[in-house]
Automatic annotation (TrEMBL):
Domain of life: Bacteria
Signal sequence residues: 1-19
Record protein name field: Lipocalin-like domain-containing protein
Keywords assigned by UniProt, alphabetized: Signal
């Protein structure tokens, strides 16, 4: 009987030890940012770009090859939550812009840049995730249509 009583006391003590020392866990952060929230977080820079001008492809990769003839290192886009922002061109000139998603799925974006002549672009096939943005745009040019496909990354 004494042996059973000691066993019960030992069992009760171990239950108290394990139940009173609970581990505090932090619930995982399940908040997924929307495309707009990611877009307006930080400035964006071109990471890779492919041009097709008159059937001729050229390419730019930040820190790598550049067969486009344009230095994209200074080029930046800043998007603000109110639909405004700024664009810095390849020469370091900064212009105001407005932007908006054209579809509920946020896969098409209209971008109006107040260059010396106000110019509106429609970015298609827009994909925004984590810290990257992919899009394709058709640009009307006096020498013909230019098709650009690009990836931008957030400036850290």
């Amino acid at each position: 009987m004494k042996h059973l009583a000691l066993l019960l006391v030992a069992f009760s003590a171990s239950v108290c030890l394990f139940t009173s020392c609970t581990k505090t866990t932090t619930p995982p952060d399940d908040k997924h940012l929307t495309k707009k929230e990611i877009l307006v977080q930080k400035p964006w820079q071109v990471d890779e770009l492919i041009h097709n001008i008159g059937g001729i492809n050229t390419q730019y990769i930040r820190g790598g090859i550049n067969t486009t003839g344009i230095d994209y290192n200074l080029l930046r886009f800043v998007f603000k939550a109110d639909g405004t922002g700024s664009h810095t061109d390849q020469f370091g000139n900064t212009y105001s812009l407005t932007w908006k998603f054209l579809t509920a799925a946020e896969q098409d974006l209209e971008l109006t840049v107040n260059l010396p002549t106000t110019t509106t672009y429609q970015w298609n096939l827009v994909e925004i995730a984590d810290s990257t943005l992919h899009a394709t745009v058709k640009i009307k040019d006096k020498s013909g249509d230019i098709l650009e496909s690009f990836r931008m990354t957030q400036v850290k």
